[in-house]
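Researcher: Let's try something more involved. This one mixes different molecule types, so please make sure each is placed in the same coordinate frame as the others.
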Amino acid sequence: MYNLVDLTDKKILVVGASSGIGKQTAVTLSRLGAKVILAARREDKLMETLALLEGEGHSVKRFDVQDTDGIEKVVNDIVAESGALDGMVYSAGLGTALPLQQTKPEKINQVFDVNFFGFIETVRQLCRRGRFNPGMRIVGISSVASIRGDKSKTAYSASKSAMDSAVRCIAREVADKGICINSVAPSMTATELYTHYLDKYGEDSETNKDLLKRQYLGIAETSDIANAVAFLLSPAARFITGITLPVDGGLTTC
Amino acid sequence: MTEQEKIALIEETLDLDEGTLTADTVLDDVDEYDSMAKLSLIVMMDDEFGVKLTGDVIKGFKTVGDILAVMN
Amino acid sequence: MTEKEKIALIEETLDLDEGTLTADTVLDDVDEYDSMAKLSLIVMMDDEFGKKLTGDVIKGFKTVGDILAVME
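Model: All components are placed in one shared frame. Result:
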């Protein structure tokens, strides 16, 4: 049977694979045949993700995206151990909520280090001779916050807009190398972040009801996002580059 | 940090005039104590005292004194 | 910096395998020497040697040796 999203033996690095969307993405990619390199700051959490993967040949790598200067070495090590890569998913992110008066330069930097600078540096290191296979696909996990405004989200939203802008620019620059790069913009997804959100506002709160009215397909499962990522990593998406794909249950269309 | 300094810090965090609050001030009576103010309080507590406030703890705050009690 | 080190730096800047270039290599024969590569060269020259390469200077580069001549 024809499989549209066949990732058999594709070597795909998932940065931020210890929780949430990154964790589910790693599981989904393994089910589609990929050899997944799980990366995140906490190795113990990565081992939990590793236990959920299907198939053989997966590996785990400690990867602290906040240490921007250390990314070159980590990428070098990964390529030395696993060979050139076929794909990378960047799912490391801080969902920090900061009222304007708390949005001080050092706080913005913390958010940007993880959400943006880490992304660019990882992409930069991967898009070099010998580190990628022809046809490599990169997917950044952005957010609908990239194009929507909300209280306390100045730093977060700006970091996601920055990612999406970068994706448009880099796509054009790496096209000659046969690389495609896109981002995916989820709306509220059933991760720890949503648990915190419910803890803060309550399920019956006006805030939550209002969210569900706008995000009319309900709260996304992490697999909804992972499926979109898998598609963009697959040969079926070879003509798609430089875009941000909303996976948002209708939120940004109304 | 003295109690007076702590109250001043809460006032600054909520963007209130100095001298607006006392330990007995009931938070429900403070117009400015809204969801953004609570978020500011969470960030300040983490930055200044390394204390992570949960939603439940915040809901438990009735007076300024309740906030002072966790500022250490 | 020795000539060998300079050549290695040019190779790295153009994302070429080590040992691809010599001082005699004609730039027109290097596929990777495109507009982005020239831009990378401008940035590298500024960062490493404090040199601002103009378009005219770049147009004058015929061989790797011509680049080496301004790397100081």
